[in-house]
């Protein structure tokens, strides 16, 4: 496997260790509940901070801010998946798949089995990139305007919560499946981990 980022076929001697379907069933519910909880926690911090500034917050007074927020959210969802895609493409040159379900947006590289390092980079990239974008944005918005601050905080909250599935898979790869030989098949919504049987 030295130097290889993926296998086209599951090699001999591997067994399926875990399957996570973020699109349907148990995991879809868990990841979405976590996403809502994270958003609530972020707002529970942001709203008092806005109140401390002693400005009234009424988002209905600022339709432009709302429109910018909604457009930013849609662009974010697309860019998040594109960042997954860029990493998978750069590391494997294989065919990608993109999609949107009610429960999740997704990007996968369905026809191959990527090694742990490739999987880890691709899974974590949007979390790292957009946390580095949204945190400064929230700080800037705090000093700019309370409405933008709240909306930027919602964006940050949706991002952090929306990464729950990515972060769980990253956690598994970092701490539970530490062997370099661990393989992951990522169809987008469904991520399946394979380990060597020995
Ligand atoms: Zn993601």
Written account of the structure:
Helices cover about 60% and strands about 20% of the residues. With about 200 residues, it is of the alpha+beta class. The chain is elongated. The protein is built from 5 helices and 6 strands. Helix 1 runs antiparallel to helix 4 (about 145-160) and helix 3 crosses helix 5 (about 165-175). The protein has one domain. The protein binds zinc ion (ZN).
Number of strands: 6
N/C terminus separation: 16 Å
Compressed to H and E, one letter per element, the order equals: EEHHEEHHHEE
What binds here, in terms of ligands, is: zinc ion
Secondary-structure content class: alpha+beta
Mean pLDDT: 93
Per DSSP, what share of the residues sits in E-state strands of 2 or more residues?
A: 15-25%
Please give the share of residues in helix.
Answer: 55-70%
Rg over CA atoms, rounded to whole Å, is 19 Å
Low-confidence region ranges: none
The major beta sheet can be summarized as: 6 strands, antiparallel
- Globally, the shape reads elongated
Our count of domains comes out at 1
Helix count equals: 5
Strands, helices and their partners?
Layout (H helix, E strand, L loop, with lengths): L5 E2 L6 E8 L3 H28 L10 H30 L4 E4 L4 E11 H29 L1 H17 L1 H13 L6 E4 L3 E7 L2
Bound molecules: zinc ion.
The site of zinc ion (ZN) has 4 residues, from α2.
Précis, in short:
With 198 residues, the protein is of the alpha+beta class. It has one domain (15-53, 62-196).
């Amino acid at each position: 496997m030295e130097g290889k980022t993926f296998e086209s076929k599951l090699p001999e001697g591997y067994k399926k260790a875990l399957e996570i379907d973020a699109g349907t069933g148990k995991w879809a519910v868990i990841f979405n509940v976590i996403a809502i909880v994270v958003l609530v926690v972020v707002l529970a911090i942001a709203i008092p901070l806005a109140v401390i500034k002693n400005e009234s917050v009424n988002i209905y007074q600022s339709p432009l801010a709302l429109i910018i927020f909604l457009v930013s959210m849609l662009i974010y969802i697309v860019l998040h998946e594109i960042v997954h895609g860029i990493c998978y493409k750069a590391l494997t040159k294989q065919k990608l798949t993109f999609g949107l379900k009610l429960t999740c947006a997704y990007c996968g590289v369905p026809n191959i089995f990527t090694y742990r390092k490739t999987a880890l980079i691709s899974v974590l990239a949007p979390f790292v990139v957009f946390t580095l974008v949204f945190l400064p944005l929230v700080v800037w918005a705090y000093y700019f305007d309370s409405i933008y601050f709240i909306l930027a905080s919602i964006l940050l909250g949706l991002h952090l919560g929306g990464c729950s599935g990515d972060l769980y898979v990253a956690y598994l790869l970092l701490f539970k499946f530490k062997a370099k030989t661990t393989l992951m098949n990522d169809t987008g919504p469904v991520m399946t981990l394979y380990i060597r049987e020995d």
